[in-house]
Amino acid sequence: MLRHFVFGLLSFVFLCAPAHAVEKYVAAADCYWPPMELTDSNKQPTGYSPDFLKALAKAVGIEIEVRNVAWDGIFGGVATGQYDIVSSSVTITEERKKQFDFSDPYFEVVQAVLLPAGKHINSLKDLKGMKVGGQIATTGIFVVRKADVGAELKEYDDVGLAIEDLLKGRIDAVICDDPVALYYVNKKADTAGKLNISFKTQEKEYYGFVVKKGRKDLLEKLNKGIRLLKESGEERKIAEKWLGN
């Protein structure tokens, strides 16, 4: 009798237990880099990268929660295990690869220099003597600094503040990734028509998802998802939604 009871109990537990527990991860994104990362009317992360991660997670059978995290603490958070992934338009660089592991590239950009409408430059050298703004610790800032053209750099917590100062005449130019520049030039209601992309660098950069050193299992899932989205055409659909044709 006891044997039948135990068998019945085990059968009940087996039937009620989930067949497979879905792996869950947390991604951090600084949502002040539109249209790649921004917040919706409910202050929730949205944009190209959150949509891409959502589709990636579905493709490989995992869950990824995207949280809005300030840029200046985003890398420390993944290093200490607060987050599993940094998904914040992070350019893959040799310097960053010394501290973190990167997924395969998922997006290509160049740097763009924004000026008020009607003003132009032909090269980074033309920034000499100008006040140039950009988001703190981004590759745009690194590019101007490396070029050593005699520009005065001003770093901001988010690129929108730099754009605001540009339109108010407090600085002369802003440098940022080209999809972000295009968003402010063409799509954002209060800046469209007031700015122009005057110059683009030729050197291409590539975004990757960032994980803590040694997270090989997670990297494999991310890389598989990136590949599947490219092969299925889903990547193109996301790009058309946020960047146009």
How would you describe this structure in keywords?
D-Maltodextrin-Binding Protein, domain 2, single chain, disordered N terminus, three-stranded parallel beta sheet, 245 residues, 14 strands, 2 domains, alpha/beta
In short, what is this structure?
The protein is built from nine helices and 14 strands. It folds into two domains: 125 residues, D-Maltodextrin-Binding Protein, domain 2 (3-Layer(aba) Sandwich); 93 residues, Periplasmic binding protein-like II (D-Maltodextrin-Binding Protein, domain 2, 3-Layer(aba) Sandwich), CATH 3.40.190.10. The strands form five sheets. A five-stranded mixed beta sheet has the order 10-9-11-8-12, with helices on both faces. Strands 4-1-5 form a three-stranded parallel beta sheet.
Describe what this molecule looks like in 3D.
By secondary structure, this protein is an alpha/beta fold. The chain folds into 2 domains: 22-108 and 206-243, 3-Layer(aba) Sandwich (D-Maltodextrin-Binding Protein, domain 2); 111-203, Periplasmic binding protein-like II (D-Maltodextrin-Binding Protein, domain 2, 3-Layer(aba) Sandwich). 38% of the residues lie in helices and 23% in strands. The chain has 9 helices and 14 strands. It has helices at residues 2-16, 48-60, 74-79, 94-97, 139-147, 159-167, 178-187, 216-232, 234-243, and strands at 24-29, 38-39, 45-46, 63-68, 85-86, 100-102, 107-109, 111-116, 131-135, 152-156, 173-177, 195-200, 205-207, 210-212. The strands form 5 sheets. A 5-stranded mixed beta sheet has the order 10-9-11-8-12, with helices on both faces. The chain has a 3-stranded parallel beta sheet with strand order 4-1-5. It is globular and about 60 Å long. The protein starts with a helix and ends with a helix.
